[in-house]
Amino acid sequence: MDIFLDSADLKELEQVADWGICDGVTTNPSLIAKQGQDFKEIVGQIAQKIDGPISAEVVSEDATGMLKEAEVLAELHPNIVIKLPLTPDGLKCCKILSGRGIRTNVTLCFQPLQALLAAKVGATFISPFIGRIDDLSTDGMQLIRDIRQIYTNYGFKTRILAASIRHPKHVLEAALAGADVVTAPFAVIKRLYNHPLTDQGLEKFLADWKQSGQSSIV
Ligand code: G3P
Questions:
Q1: Is 216 a domain residue?
Q2: Whose CA is nearest to atom 6 of ligand 1?
Q3: 110 within domain boundaries
Q4: Does 190 qualify as catalytic in the annotation?
Q5: Residue 186 belongs to what domain range?
Q6: Model pLDDT for residues 136-151, shown as the tens digit of each residue
Q7: Is the residue at 179 inside a domain?
Q8: Is residue 218 part of a domain?
Q9: 3-state SS record for 21-90
Q10: The ligand 1 atom nearest the CA atom of 31
Q11: CA distance 57 to 129
């Protein structure tokens, strides 16, 4: 399962990339706006820090405008993946880009038939938003399971990119449900390492080692 950082914060990216577990990055207009910096500049800086798919989202609402933006974004770096909204124009643009061999990430997916349509137009990734579905007290993970079943039934190659992740349990359940990728905020990724027994166990090991009177190994 690939782990992407869902952020446009370069410091967060540096930390997660340093840990050696970051396979890519997803951004969206809200995450970019938070940085208060030029969109294309940030995307270019991200591309220098990670060798993996980097999702950059168009902001036009018509296919012609989306295509123009996609052409500019794709030129920034070979790792750029064009993020498109799950609308008729978004999927129309997706089909054109897929035909040109440009990778795409269809976003704002909230029901399985949307994911079916995205696969039919050749989306590289589909982004079902688990957290926002859970926020409405319905089962976001069921969407991952349904998409997995549909894609398996028909042999679609679109990769399921579980998004809108709120906590480590979403990551676990997405992995169990067969998502290909999870994209999570920094605050969630850093918690993936956590277990109190790990901390307690290490503390005991080191205390016992100190008791042994031996110095460092090197
Ligand atoms: O970036 C796409 C998605 O992960 C955003 O999720 O619900 O935390 O804004 P959310």
A1: no
A2: 164
A3: yes
A4: no
A5: 2-211
A6: 989 999 999 999 999 9
A7: yes
A8: no
A9: CCCEEECCHHHHHHHCCCHHHHHHHHHHHCCCCEEEECCCCCHHHHHHHHHHHHHHCCCEEEEEECCHHH
A10: 1
A11: 15
In this predicted model, what pLDDT tens digit does every residue of 175-195 receive, in sequence order? 999 999 999 999 999 999 999
Q: What is the CATH number of the domain that holds 173?
A: 3.20.20.70
pLDDT tens string 32-65: 999 999 999 999 999 999 999 999 999 999 999 9
Dihedral, 145, 150, 152, 155 alpha carbons, nearest 10: -150
The pick from 58, 164, 167 for probing ligand 1's pocket by mutation, whose C-beta has the most ligand atoms within 8 angstroms, reads 164
Instruction: Locate the ligand 1 atom nearest the alpha carbon of residue 183 and give its number.
Output: 4
Q: Is 107 strand, coil or helix? A: strand
Q: Which residues contact 143 (CB under 8 A, 6 or more apart)?
A: 109, 110, 111, 112, 115, 128, 130, 133
What is the H or E stretch that residue 5 is in? strand 2-6
User: Distance, CA 165 to ligand 1 centroid (Å)?
Assistant: 7
CB-based contact 90:101 (threshold 8 Å): no
Dist CA 171 CA 106 (whole Å): 20
Find out whether 80 and 42 touch, Cβ atoms under 8 Å: no
**Per the structure, how many domains does the chain have?**
1
| Sign of the four-CA dihedral 28, 80, 70, 89 | negative
C-alpha 75 to ligand 1 mean position (Å): 25
Radius of gyration of the chain from its Cα atoms, rounded to whole angstroms: 20
- What residues does ligand 1 touch, defined as CB less than 6 Å away? 6, 26, 28, 129, 131-132, 163-164, 183
